[in-house]
Design a protein that fits this description.
The protein is mainly alpha-helical. It contains 18 helices and no strands. The model has no long low-confidence stretch (mean pLDDT 93). It binds 4-fluoro-L-phenylalanine.
Length: 448
Amino acid sequence: MSSTRGKFNSRIGFILAAAGSAVGLGNIWGFPTQAAGNGGAAFVLMYLVLAFCLAYPAFMAELIIGRHGQANAVESLRKISTTAMQKRFAFIVGFGGILCAALLMSFYSIVAGWMLAFTAEPITTAVGANAASDWLTSQSTSRNIIFTLVFTVLTVYIISRGVENGIERWSKRLMPALVALLVSLTVYVLTLDGATDGLKAYLIPDISRLFEPDLIVSALGQAFFSLSLGTSVIIIYGSYVARNENLVSLSASVTLIDVFIAFLAGLLIIPAMYVAAAQGVEIFSADGSLKSGDTLVLTVLPALFDGMGSIGVFVGFAFFSLMSIASLTSSISMLEAPVSYTVERFNIERNKATIVIGSLIFATSCLIIFNFSTLFGFVIALTTQYGQPIIGMFCCIFVGWVWHRSSLLEELKAGNEQIEHQLFWKIWPWYTKLVCPTAIAIVFIHSL
Ligand code: PFF
């Protein structure tokens, strides 16, 4: 089977694909609003520390499990297990991660569908189709089903083309487009009235809040979600990385890009809110905090674009295109996790497996749409608050406690002969063995 497996053809292909998975709605929507609600730069500071000190080592752990295993998450975890008990546990953790990725996609594609609908709206408005514009921007079951379906079909299309022709090729196309859109929008928004107040709110830290437990919990949760940890996605992407690649620097590149894009998105979103305020849009909730969540993206920002006149049509289109692209590069990684498992475990053709799993995920999305008030928040909490931290913690435990140290070193040495004598090898194994699992457990228990 291994000779027929896909692989990333280039180092940059992997970096863009993994960064594509990492950079998503979490960066452009989640990070800025969490920062705004948690003391601005105090949150940014804590996020940077946790992203590099906890999420990066955990990312490394998942990546190396996959590169060593050269197989789907379940098989890769089983390969480093020796006892029957460990192998059973490997199945639970690997399969749990795959399930988590599939469930994540079921709600993520609903939100991405909103982004697609809001991308289409400036076009219908420009041609005077006001009824269509209203339908596109109002919550309705029909709109949600149709756009979730469109988004799922796009994801299925890319994944059905395989690793090189699907994931790698599309990440190479979409990621530069994403960065270009983000930079242009940020530069434009920063020239508008009111943007400076937004910059102050974002960049001047409220240091007194730095060690608030809630801030730390939010920052770690955000870092885990943003680096796509605890879903088996990084394991499967790691399994497509060539043996001569240096995993330490690859992981560092992906973490840096992810953190940089989140920071940049903050420079766009928070000043944009204050620009909206300068134009008379209400940006504060009744309790005095900045509006966040869907109100921010689906009400405050569209009101800002409307107030900009004809240029607002282009800005709105560019902004929601950016959100749609970011969603797509993330959702393809979510779908790859169950597809790769099904292809390898049941020896099914990739095309068939992608369509079957894509349909099952779409059916779950429909179930959520029809029971929105009960299921939407529940599935988000189940996957992001419980699934990701628990599975991420177990992956660290596998690397730290189950995997034989000499075999682990051997895997790291492939692509980095000198690693044994570097600072990384002196610190990282202890990090994954003790610090990461303990910190994740503490944060997880606190969040309950
Ligand atoms: N990292 C993505 C984001 O920040 O939006 C979300 C994500 C993608 C989470 C893939 C988990 C995953 F497996």
